[in-house]
Amino acid sequence: xxxxxxxxxxVVTSDIWRKMVQIxxxxxxxxxxxxxxxxxxxxxxxxxxxxxxxxxxxxxQSEEAVQLQACLxxxxxxxxxxxxxxxxxxxxxxxVTVTGGQNEAxxxxxxxxxxxxxxxKAAIYGRDPNWGRIACxxxxxxVPFDLTKLRVVLGDILLMDGGEPQLxxxxxxxxxxxxxxxxxxTVEIKVSVGDGLGIGQAWGCDLSYDYVKINAEYxx
Amino acid sequence: VSASSNLIPAAPIHxxxxxxxxxxxxxxxxxGFKAAGIYGxxxxxxxxxxLALVTCDVDATSAxxxxxxxxxxxxxxxxxxxxxxxxxxRAVLINAGQANAATGDAGYQDxxxxxxxxxxxxxxxxxEVLIESTGVVGQRIKKGALLESLPNLVNSLxxxxxxxxxxxxxxxxxxxxxxxxxxxxxxxxxTITIGGMAKGSGMIHPNMA
Lengths: 220, 209
Description:
Low-confidence stretches of chain A: none
Number of strands of chain A: 8
Strand content of chain B: 25-35%
Strand order of the largest sheet of chain A: 6-5-4-7-3-8
Largest sheet of chain A: 6 strands, mixed
Number of helices of chain B: 5
Helix content of chain A: 40-55%
Strand order of the largest sheet of chain B: 2-3-4-5
Strand content of chain A: 15-25%
Structural class of chain A: alpha/beta
Radius of gyration of chain B: 16 Å
Largest sheet of chain B: 4 strands, mixed
Mean pLDDT of chain B: 95
Number of strands of chain B: 7
Helix content of chain B: 25-40%
Largest interface: A-B, 77 and 89 residues
Shape of chain B: globular
Distance between the termini of chain B: 34 Å
Oligomer: heterodimer
């Protein structure tokens, strides 16, 4: 289960605040995954006291709304990433960034599909730079794209381009994953699916033996 | 309060870059908010804090986003109902240990009793109290322990960083780290603050609306 409480002293009307919170949730908590199980209890409550004396926000299009939305997105993304980082049994955070989508929603959907792949998560725990599993998970996201424009980068190492696997230093790529695991750091996966302006991110973690151990012992 | 905050370390928080500055604190960083986290005897094992409370000195504009799982926990149903009748809230009570999900009408009545008891202590209407629960699915809240702990929880409220930290620890379950952050930025030329805390480690694939 994930729970969250957000507080601010910004001044914002009820309907706009509720829309802003859902937008931020979609860009953060709804883009994380640890094990693919959606909880019965996931909740985010957000309270705005209005005590800052800032201008009252009553339109999503206003400059002030854009500023507040950006801050809200940042706070929720920071917290969301820390949940994925702390995934049960995880040794590293996986950050998937998808570019070239037709829009933000489509790019986000592909990103989450990649971050959710159990096979990819297991490969990362095995320090295996398995571009095939990344491409596969992008492909079944339910978002059509031109395969010949698929590009996959692990850290700074190009694994696929134009839909074709590339020659790369497998030992260096594996070492990148190994170091991330040793320091509980971040594995960055960048996927490009076309020429669109849509960008989306998702966060997950690797899948280790400890995940099974923890959940075999935690009674539901 | 600060001693109990140290039972698990704080998570590294990786904020995206932007026109904001990370500042110390979490849910208490913004003006008007207090928080507390105490051990109330709800957890099955250990004495890590398991009851958290966040309050606002004024009626706060409220929003919520909730699991779309059809088998929604009693506090989820309660909060959705409450937010549909009130645009403001003053308190969020959170327990760790029992999820109070798949507990039927009895579980829902537990939520109402807990919210009402807290509202009485805080001298506000029950519709100003929101509830979150986490823990074992299928178990009702240890209501007796929770109700007995409420006066101590209310007395522990603080606008300090320690108040925020203790609350962030109290909502954790299998988490190895607590998650808390606050930022300061400019909105319309005025400084505003946003803070937050979260928990989560397993059963994580949110789809909230």
